[in-house]
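>> received
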Amino acid sequence: MNRNKEYYVHESAYVDEPCEIGKGTKIWHFSHIMKNAKIGEYCIFGQNVNVASGVVIGNNVKVQNNVSIYTGAIIEDDVFLGPSCVLTNVTNPRSQIVRHNLYEKTIFHRGATVGANATIICGIKLGRYSFISAGAVVTKNVPDYALMMGVPARRVGWISRHGIPLPEPDTEGIVVCPESGYRYKEVEPDVLRCLDLDEDASLPPEKAVGKVSYRDLKIK
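>> returned
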C-alpha cells in the first residue's frame, strides 16, 4: 500500500523508503522500487519491473513487463522501454570482482523507444526520439531520431517523433512524417532536426493521439 494517494502501487508490489514517486504514477503487479530511486509523474511500470537504488526517471515514462532498470540509468521524460528489454551497468562484469563503485551511466534521452528484447550496453546515450528495434543490441551512442536495427545495432534510417520511418528527402533535403506532417531535415551529417517543433517542446494535444495504424501508413 502507498501512503501517498497521488500515485498507485499494486498490493503485490514493493516500494522501499525513502524514494520519490510523482503523482499519477502506477506501479503494477510484483514490481519493486528500491530506496533512493526517483520517479516522475504519470509513469507506468508493468508487471515484474525492478527499479534499482539511485535510478532517476522522468515524467510519462512507460516501462513494460519484465524490465530491470539498474543503478546508473538516467531516463528522461517520455521514454518507452519495451517488454523484456535488457539494461546493464557494468561493461565487464565478473562475479569475483566487486565493481559497486564503478557502475556506468546510461542516458535515455527524451522520447527514446527501446523495443522488446533489445539490449542496451551501459555507458552510452540514446538520443532524443531514437528508436531501438526489437531484439537489437546497442553498443554505441545513438543520434536523435535514429532508427537502429541489428546485432550490433546500426542506423538504418531516420524515424519521426511519431515513430514512423522517414522517406527519402526532397531536393531541399526535407522529409515529411506521413502521420504528423512535421518536416525534418539533416542539418549536418548524422544530425536530424524537426523544423516545426522544438525537440524539447511537448506535442500539441491534437498531435498526441494516433489515428492511423503503423501498417496502414506503411501500405500508403
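>> The two ends are 48 Å apart (CA to CA).
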